[in-house]
Amino acid sequence: MEVKAALRWLLALAVCLQRVEIGQKRPYQAFGRRSNWEQYMPNSLNPINAEDEKNDEGPTQQEWAQMRLATHADAEMVDSLILQSCTTRWRKVAMVVGIAMNAFDQKVPHLPMSYMSVRITEMERSGVLELAGDPMNIRFSEVRLAQPKAD
Asked: Are 142 and 132 in contact (CB under 8 A)?
């Protein structure tokens, strides 16, 4: 019985290997050297630099007005999305926001994305989350679920 299982495995492996023709580059070989990445990047995407941070002023007046109209149910919905994205280990706020982004857009489309940063701050004040840095600057701040206090 073991011989039949081994033969089936070898046959499956051979079929998989035949799908990539001889001489054809595999997906991980398509870019070649790392220095060639620029030719594959769209012109609209530029690396982050210090000038980007100076121009990042946070939420606009219109976004603040939209956030003021948020209901208690909206806040609870966003809080649950944030908690689902957090772990007990430190994680960049950008990662937390990115994980929750699709559900956020579907469930509360009338709120700006910066509302998640406001809710993270509020949850940190209430002791649900631990925060390191300014959550409005999501690339440079981290968050995790609150750790139990050691007595």
From this structure: yes
